[in-house]
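Lab notebook, bench 4. We co-purified these components, and the gel suggests they stay together. Before we commit to crystallization screens, I want a quick structural picture of the whole thing.
Request: model the full complex, all chains together.
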Amino acid sequence: MTRITDISVHDVRFPTAAAGDGSDAINRGDYSATYVELGTDGPHTGAGFTFTNGRGNELTCAAVRALAVHVQGRSLAELFADPLAFHRSLTADPQLRWLGPEKGVLHMATGALVNAVWDLRAKVEGKPLWRLLAELPTADLVACVDFRHIADALTPAEAAAILDKGRTGLDQRLAMLDRDGLPSYTTSVGWLGYPDDKVRALARAAYADGWRAMKMKVGGDIADDVRRAALIRAEIGPDALLMMDANQVWDVDEAIANMRRLANADPYWIEEPTHPDDVLGHARIQRAVAPIRVATGEVAANRVIFKQLLQAGAIGVMQIDACRVGGVGEVIAELLLAAKFGVPVCPHAGGVGLCELVQHLFAFDVLRVGRSLDGRMVEYVDHLHEHFTDPVRTRGGRYVLPEQPGYSATMRPESIARYAFPDGPAWR
Amino acid sequence: MTRITDISVHDVRFPTAAAGDGSDAINRGDYSATYVELGTDGPHTGAGFTFTNGRGNELTCAAVRALAVHVQGRSLAELFADPLAFHRSLTADPQLRWLGPEKGVLHMATGALVNAVWDLRAKVEGKPLWRLLAELPTADLVACVDFRHIADALTPAEAAAILDKGRTGLDQRLAMLDRDGLPSYTTSVGWLGYPDDKVRALARAAYADGWRAMKMKVGGDIADDVRRAALIRAEIGPDALLMMDANQVWDVDEAIANMRRLANADPYWIEEPTHPDDVLGHARIQRAVAPIRVATGEVAANRVIFKQLLQAGAIGVMQIDACRVGGVGEVIAELLLAAKFGVPVCPHAGGVGLCELVQHLFAFDVLRVGRSLDGRMVEYVDHLHEHFTDPVRTRGGRYVLPEQPGYSATMRPESIARYAFPDGPAWR
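Here is the predicted assembly.
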């Protein structure tokens, strides 16, 4: 009967902008987190966060404070007796909903809180989150999904059937993940802020470390993009996968034209070719660039956008984010939608702690929902793991399954203190 | 050469929740405004705001403060020398954009700031905003539009052609608006919080006052909705228009089924039948319920959503909001898109001061973009006008064209002081 007795919110910012890390066609900043700690009447605390790009992290912090009333004083037993009611208390607050609905600052704050509640529950039950989810009864998982506004694409009965099916062969899939790890790809080779020599050296080093899938940023000058793509392809050879990420800068027709030029480098997917809200645009691009796959999702606002991307055949790879949407329950909805439509899920990671979180979601997907590794990889970015108490571990280009109880979301107290904005020593 | 020398942000909240005003299937709260005042080195100040439902108004206030750096210290001449660069400084801030992009708290704050800048410009030029816009050279209007991500539906050349055409007959249309006022409809008859007797009395009174188009809220219990619809239709007779507004609560199939039952009352449109992000869902509903029109837009996040609603044939009426999107420039883009696709625009109003703003946008649309009154009406809600220095005026169910310079956005200082949250006398 763990009860949440206090909620603290930390504005944590890492000064990454100066190094060019994480620079792409549209985002630049200091990788930051709105970090939530749930104090309880028991021995455990819950940790959750949402990732931001620095400036504005105070907005998601303030949004967590505005939403915290729906978590403060509640027990885990109450929250999970009716997880849908809990979810809607956050997403359908009759005064706050106008500020979204279910998108942007408010929804990211919802994710931070919900993630912290799940972290707490997993710690109380002594399991890593992926195991907690994979072992839950089908009805308990279905109860976490808000089917409102997605029922035309996925019914509760269909969701239950997918999850029931996921029990078959689960032990074998778990043995495989235990033995081989989680397939992944690296994004650390081709940020726009890096010069050619650095890109070449990083691609070579990544290949030597065992990575057989790498992602580069595109969306700057197209001639530059073409040159860098050729350069990376030359380093990694014809068999490794090369993914491209335009971070939304192109118009629909521009995306189609540019991918014709970039096709020479044999890209596996083009990620975020245009505006993340443009379902019809992604659908047109996907039809034009096939067999190159369109991938998107890190900035997809909610399950309603994902539903439409799938209904429209707009994506060949679905990228979920652990912190953009309303937390674990909404991600379960999105994984189920992807399974229903037969599209593989390759979670977005990087930022602050996103790798730590999505490894759990990925393992749950493989074990219980998507039930396969075909076309599935987790993004990997080699930044900021040192600030977490249970950082990701990789071996030969694959994540090692996390073992500690919880959602791997807990940040080191000394990191929180040092990078607290604006008063921590790193910012003074 | 007016320069913006200081920016003040006021958290203003009116205690409307207790009266049931503004209650619908999904929103309830204290009508509030994030109110922005631009001080200048000249005799004028600029006023702009975004509307919220009370709790959370501190978030839009904080977002205005985060964005204010892009306005502080700039001159009107600079901002309008390259209005697209100004727009993108707000919507594509490399650190803040992650919190949207172009949606929710951040985009509403963008709207408040941009609206204040336009109010200031209109005051400096001594014209009501509608006149300023209607008289601008085509190139100046086109320069305000961000075509990125909508160029597949509307090119700069197409936009220019629409605006050039809008010069023809402008004087006649202006004479008509001057003489007859702006056609409008009233939403004050059927909030969900009102009992049947009050609804009946309000419908009768509105009809007596000259209104021939009224909107009721639906989306509660369907049997209640059917009963209330019949009751209003009986009061207003067969010829007046009855619109229905579900405020997003239905699933796609539920919307279709419920509109079959409500069709008896001969609704003209069904507004927000489902989730505002669901372009494909709205398209399915529109096909199923025709000739009843689907209307939406007050919570459409940005021009990319509007573009798709039009491309998909998902709406028969487009509802723009003055404060949800990124201000006047983005609304111009949306009006142009609607004109391109031949869909009439009926602006969303109500809230705090939305009637005051949208009358300008509506007049500009009729004069220069849509060039017709066919199917066009402005929403009217009889709340909170007394707090503005240039409140809307109506005559026989129509708005009277505003005449004072500016965007009618200026709130009375005594109202700002009295309803300041949490320290104003009304809240202490």
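Residues 112 and 419 of chain A are 18 Å apart (CA to CA). Worth comparing against the SEC data before the next meeting. Chain A has two domains: 4-142+415-419, 170-407.
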